[in-house]
Design brief:
heterodimer; A: mainly alpha; 14 helices; flat; disordered C terminus; B: mainly alpha
Chain lengths: 293, 317
């Protein structure tokens, strides 16, 4: 017996369709509202840095600026008068040297942990990894007193040493997994040919770590750049301060004078992470897509 | 010549195996020294700059600080007794618990809501970038910006004034009832994006078949979410919850920057309380005890995570 199509409830199918459509439209509107709410602070930030201090006071905070020229004056003021220049250059130094040396040392340590067989490996790994599990508040007071005693307080070398140390444990964790999975055939061949352990690391292991090295370097650089608490505790002079503590000090000192300059300073302080995000955005979103397939 | 195969069993036992064992041991010892050579810079730096300070901090919390003798005077548990008797500590603890409670629920709830709503929509890519965007600002920079948004003559009040009969000038960051919710809003604005991305990754790993089956059967969006998506997403949710809770316990930058002019800022969280007691009031030993309490809490949460993770791994296998 053939199915009698006329008895099917087409109305019900249509009703389900209509409900789904209504739902989708609702979701769309809701997401639009949320997106606008999320973007509003950025709008405010951008509009503010494009106004001169006088224009900012005279107009509504959300009004469109009359031009873009005040941006340069604001950024110059932030760089020179707010001393953000020192902060930016210091943080560049701390970030590049600290993260670079830390990731290099971490790869060396991971090599020792992952590619040799001996007892006590777990102990050494736990020892290094223990450096990440405590809250920062537990470091502050002892570091402050030890640095005071050693004359490292308020020095660039002191900042670099600490940032290097704190950026080691996490890359060790990542690189240990990476190097454990890497095949050891090349090592054995090299050892047969009389290659020293030192050369083995530099000519075979290290060149194979380029990808993770860059990724970990960017991650740790961003961490050092964004750090506020350690720079606030370990530095006082404006010549040594990191960009974030310079910004934080500036926020108070000039609070009533020119919000446009403070906003420009905030933007300046976020510049590296903003650039990184847009340069790596495709990479990042591709990463998301790959894992969704 | 006799081959070993023809030899009686007993002869094998006479072979000098200890020589091979000795060689193996020597090899391992050599491996260990080579490996230690590679690990030594990391071990030295981590021990001196991270582990030694933690141990020293615990020691300091059992002392009394004196101006000229430093931390020589043993104080036993006196700092911890002071903590328990101090209403400021209770208040800082209560506020920290508020932060943790909020971090336990809101990033996951909002992130999950956005992730589930976005999934499979045409605007997914654009919206994903929009919600993640605040994360590209440094926490300090975001805090400074929101500081001005919340100012009495700031942008939030000027928007509210449009809807009110008279100009609004609420000091959002100067009133103890509004300051914590205000900072939480700014904090969520910056952190929900990461929770969303992690949850979207988790969602992407959820198999599509059960979802489609449920949809064909005429299940509503909510039913599909509640009975199909949510159970499959549980491991990801756990990771996001633990990350958020740890961040909630240790949030500092946002509060420090936005509460800079608030007179009662030291009780806004344990992290700020510790900082003010140490570096503004020089109560070094007392502040060390606060740091130890914070450390015990953070380690417990991490330990709980390991246990839960283990249980979920076993459940899904």
């Amino acid at each position: 017996m053939a199915v009698d199509l006329s008895t099917l409830d087409y109305g019900a199918i249509a009703r389900t369709e209509a409900r789904r459509n209504r739902e989708n439209k609702g979701v769309f509107v809701l997401m639009m509202v949320l997106s606008i709410a999320w973007l509003a602070p950025f709008y405010y930030l951008i509009v503010s840095v494009l106004k001169s201090p006088a224009e900012y006071v005279a107009s509504h905070p959300l009004a469109l600026p009359s031009g873009i020229m005040p941006l340069f004056a604001n950024v110059t003021d932030a760089w020179v008068e707010a001393r953000m220049g020192f902060g930016v250059l210091n943080s560049l130094l701390y970030g590049v040297v600290g993260a670079g040396v830390a990731v290099f040392i971490a790869i060396m340590a991971a090599h020792g942990l992952a590619r040799y067989r001996y007892s006590g490996r777990t102990f050494w790994f736990m020892l290094i990894f223990a450096g990440t599990i405590f809250p920062f508040q537990m470091y502050l007071i002892p570091l402050f007193f030890t640095y005071l005693e050693l004359g490292l307080l308020d020095t660039r070398i002191g900042m670099i040493l600490f940032y290097t140390a704190i950026c080691i444990p996490f890359p060790v964790l990542v690189m240990r997994n990476y190097l454990t999975q890497m095949s050891s055939e090349m090592d054995e061949a090299a050892r047969m040919d009389g290659c020293s352990e030192f050369r083995l690391f530099f000519s075979i292991i290290l060149p194979n770590c380029k990808g993770p090295f860059i990724a970990l370097f960017l991650l740790q650089f961003t961490w050092i750049w964004n750090d506020l608490i350690f720079s606030t505790v370990l530095t006082q002079r404006v010549e040594v301060r990191s960009v974030m503590s310079t910004l934080q000090v500036f926020q108070g000192a000039y609070a009533d004078v020119s919000q446009t300059v403070v906003m420009a300073a905030s933007l300046l302080a976020s510049l590296p992470t903003v650039v990184l995000f847009f340069v790596l955005r495709r990479h990042f979103m591709q990463g998301l897509q790959v894992s969704s397939n | 010549m006799t081959s070993p195969h023809n030899m009686p069993d007993a002869d094998l036992r006479k072979l000098d195996f200890s020589r091979y064992a000795e060689q193996e041991r020597r090899e391992r010892r050599r491996s260990m020294w080579t490996a230690l050579g590679f690990m030594s810079p990391a071990i030295v730096l981590v021990s001196f700059f991270l582990l030694y300070p933690v141990a020293y901090n615990v020691y300091i919390s059992f002392t009394r600080w004196r101006r000229f003798t430093g931390f020589d005077e043993w104080g036993g548990l006196s700092q911890y007794q002071r903590l328990l008797g101090n209403p400021n500590f209770s208040e800082a603890m209560a506020n920290t618990i508020i932060w943790v409670g909020v971090s336990l629920v809101l990033p996951v709830a909002i992130g999950l809501f956005i992730a589930v709503m976005l999934r499979g929509q045409k605007m997914e890519e654009t919206a994903k970038s929009i919600f993640f965007l605040p994360r590209i600002l440094a926490p300090t920079a975001a805090g400074v910006m929101w500081f001005y948004v919340y100012a009495p003559d700031g942008v939030l009040n000027s928007i509210l004034s449009l809807f009110a009969a008279e100009p609004v000038s609420i000091g959002w960051l100067y009133n103890e009832n509004t300051i914590t919710p205000s900072i939480i809003v700014a904090y969520l604005w910056q952190t929900v994006g990461l929770a969303m991305v992690l949850l979207l990754l988790g969602l992407a790993a959820v198999p599509k078949d059960p979802l489609e089956a449920a949809s064909v059967e005429g299940a509503t969006r909510w039913q599909i979410f509640r009975h199909v998506t949510l159970p499959l997403l549980l491991p990801t949710i756990l990771v996001v919850v633990i990350l958020s809770v740890l961040a909630g316990f240790t949030v500092f930058d946002h509060i420090w920057v936005m509460a800079r002019d608030f007179p009662g800022k030291r009780t806004l969280s344990l992290t700020v309380y510790m900082y003010v007691e140490a570096f503004d009031r020089s109560s070094w030993a007392y502040a060390s005890a606060i740091a130890v309490v914070l450390g015990v809490i953070v380690l417990s949460v991490t330990w709980l995570q390991v246990i839960l993770q283990d249980r979920i791994d076993r459940m899904t296998k």
